[in-house]
What we know:
single chain; alpha/beta; Glutamine Phosphoribosylpyrophosphate, subunit 1, domain 1; Rossmann fold; 8-stranded antiparallel sheet; 6-stranded antiparallel sheet; 20 helices; 36% helix; globular
Amino acid sequence: MCGIVGYIGERRAYPILIKGLQRLEYRGYDSAGVALLNHDLTIYKKKGKVSEIADKEELLENVANLGIGHTRWATHGVPNEINAHPHASGSRKIALVHNGIIENYAEIKKELLEKGHTFLGQTDTEVLVHLIEDIKDTEGVDLATAVRLALNEVRGTYAIVVVSKDDPDTLVAAKKGSPLAIGLADGEFFVSSDATPIVEYTKEIVYLEMNKIAVLAKGQALKIVSLDDLEQEIISKTVDISEEALEKGGYDHFMLKEIFEQPKAIRNSMAGRIDGTTITFPELDEVKERLLNAKRIIFTSCGTAWHACLVAEHLFEDFAKIPAEVDYASEFRYRNPIINKDDVVVTISQSGETADTLAAVEIAKQSGALVLSICNVVGSSIPRHSDATIYTYAGPEISVASTKAFSTQLTTVSLLALFIAQEKKTIEKSELEKMVLELVSMPEKVEKVLETKDEVKRIAEKYSYAEDAIYLGRNYNFPIALEGAIKLKEISYIHAEGYPAAEMKHGPIALIDDQMPVIMINPMGQLYEKTVSNMQEVKARGGRLITIVSENDEIASALSEDVIRIPESSEFASTILATIPLQLLSYYMAILKGRDVDKPRNLAKSVTVE
């Protein structure tokens, strides 16, 4: 979850490291630091954001062309300067940055303490850099060998980059679990947690595989070895990310930009997959037969992507007529799930690096099931370990709170469910055509919903006093209630809960009073009238109803204190449309409360550790 950058070449390293850390700040911002190697090893780190180490005179004057940098999301040890990365060895000859968790750090630390090592902080990372130095000194080996031998002694996950005064022309990087990308250019190498800081300098990227170590030496070709010192084939990919996509483009925040990019993102996620009213997925050709013959679909993901899975469960049972179930990946991986060879396990992940979801992929593959991933980041770990991948093509999503990734996930699972229904003929042709046309019209309808931003802002101002909120929906829109609640929690720090509206009577109704905003998602659908009854129950107890309704609604609107109207649509398509005003509401509430919208406290964009 931390952000890592590294550089070795002929340019000055510091400006490259700082710019890279700024682009990775969504991955961690408890503290930040850099290590520059130019005869001496200079380490500068501070608690707080990258701005705390940017433009420091002593660093601006440093001409080192080798260095590493880090933004931290704390796991071991409180956020402070001592626990910030880079960490130095006892002699201060070696510096290391790390993303992940060393699970057996305590026993290693005990052994090193007995050898006379002294530790300054509480992190597992500091233990690792001391272990590398201990092996290097004891065995008399070079840095790359010392790193390899040390990693054979540790359990856990890691992406690390290491520098040493004794090896002044070398960076060593290694990966197990946490992502690491290496950019290849003429006479220089770039290292980063993902491709976003690298694409300005090169489009040729090597994604380091599990249990591999990369040696980046000046004047030499990239070398990758396994933990048992076997040299590996190097496979690079061309990454097509524009620098403009990584900037705010005139918006105050990345989140607002990404909300307004959703019409384009949804178009991109459908591009090449709809021919008239026929759905096609060429990327599934090799697994199509297994997919169509699936006895059961298991969806597993984390966070916002899990909400997309809940919508998918409805879609697959309604249209494809395949039994479906949904699991949190963090629970799935530990509960000994029963998986059969004729099951299909579908994972959804924006980053493609979510640790628990990646572990779920491995469990599913070991059980012989077909593993299909739905992902936004091309070439990331989960697609590489899956049997087939459907990319959502939302484009880079920088804000921690997911917006366009979620709407494109909903679009993609809708297309996939309808594709299977089309192929299995579990849906009438006329109904299929109607549903496909609904999706084709979705970008224009989303643009219309975005026009409600001023009304949503007014509503946010009205309820900005709130410390609690309840989100309610039924059927397809229960997952959207969950998504609305998590968005409000994430960026405004308002306590919010999502429930099926009928479940309100089983506990949450006790919370409702004349100060409680109750956000009801009730566009036209199968359970519209029953949800109106739930609205009556809220109103009878003084709750302040904010309702998302279809544009020609009258009954639910009359019961509501505030109304947000969305275009008429089929029930499954209303999930996408209802999501948009909930994103805007959470955004404006966060702004009014003075929150850091793009980088909310305690959260990181990609959860690459357990």
